[in-house]
Amino acid sequence: MGGGGSALRVCADHHGGINWLSLSPDGQRLLTGSEDGTARLWSTADGQCCALLQGHESYVTFCQLEDEAAFTCSADCTIRRWDVLTGQCVQVYRGHTSIVNRILVANNQLFSSSYDRTARVWTVDKGQMSREFRGHRNCVLTLAYSAPWDLPEAPCAEEAATAAGGLLVTGSTDGTAKVWQVASGCCHQTLRGHTGAVLCLVLDTPGYTAFTGSTDATVRSWDIRSGEQLQVFREHQGSVLCLQLVDRLVYSGSADRTVKCWQADTGEHLRTFSAHRRNVSALKYHAGTLFTGSGDACARAFDAQTGELQRVFRGHAFVINCIQVHGQVLYTASHDGALRLWDVRGLRAPRPPPPRRASKRSLSRLFSNKVGCAAAPLQPA
Predict the structure, then answer these.
(1) Measured at the alpha carbon of residue 134, what is the angle toward residues 165 and 230, in degrees to the nearest 5?
(2) Bridge pairing between strands 309-313 and 299-303
(3) In what order do the strands lie in the sheet with 7-11?
(4) Ordered mean pLDDT values, 10 residues apiece, the chain (381 residues)
(5) Does residue 111 contact residue 93 with C-beta atoms inside 8 Å?
(6) CB 73, CB 63: distance < 8 Å
(7) In terms of pTM, does the model score above 0.85?
């Protein structure tokens, strides 16, 4: 299985590798951030570039696209907000003292992580830093946000403070993830157990569970309120580079050239997706199909339930850093500087999943920030 797919369109306007690709919530636009120091907005309707975002003084590391605003961060230590209609920069966020790795816009707040060993939160409109999260011993790579939650009546003061502004979770090359109270800036928990850098993380916000992937070749799950390590997922033979949560399943892409699927609440290894010739750098689940991007410059489509390879998309010259899917189109962004659009019609329709026993831990609603990092919003985001 696995016939080739030809590109619908090749967008080669960037003059450097594309580090990240973001899709707007309404699906009308794409945003790419590049090594050439620019970002570009693209229309999903026709694949045309509709705005060039210029202003950063070094390469763009990451980007996030909202319906009315675009956000980019850079090795120039700044974050910028752009008007998607005019392409004009409307805000510059200054304060980090080294490369800004990731950003996340949530709950009318802008979160950022940096090589300066801090994470920060900013007011979106005014561009002012409202809180700094300091405590990691090395650079902060990835982050995710858990919104405030409702508490029963008469909570204790500590619970009320924790819930008030939500929780920020950060992953670092120091081998730890940290959970921060956004309202106070205090470290709520330090998640210790990995023996290598934390490269990616995703959150199940209703279940208050974080999943982290590391250079130690494991995925681990944590209760972000208590700091307890819940499960260790041990099957990979190389660094875990990207994660996604879908319907109580964890998908992990690794430098060992595979993606693995796990039962989220038990850590049971369900299946392996093979065929990659180099590391798996990006993954995206969509409508029963698992799409992957690899260091071998190919994207692939697998039947998510069987692991069967359905299609290979060839054409890029270097590693695929990020992928998105919208409608019947797969978008791949590569270090070769090209954005490619692929027709994904004709892939096998998803079969209904077998019934699963009810879990004690709810994983019904999911928030993810993938780092290809991710993202994320770390599927990135």
Answers:
(1) 65
(2) antiparallel
(3) 7-11, 339-343, 329-334, 320-326
(4) 71 97 96 98 93 98 96 98 96 98 95 98 94 98 87 50 81 98 97 98 92 98 97 97 97 98 96 96 96 98 96 97 95 97 83 50 33 34 29
(5) no
(6) yes
(7) yes
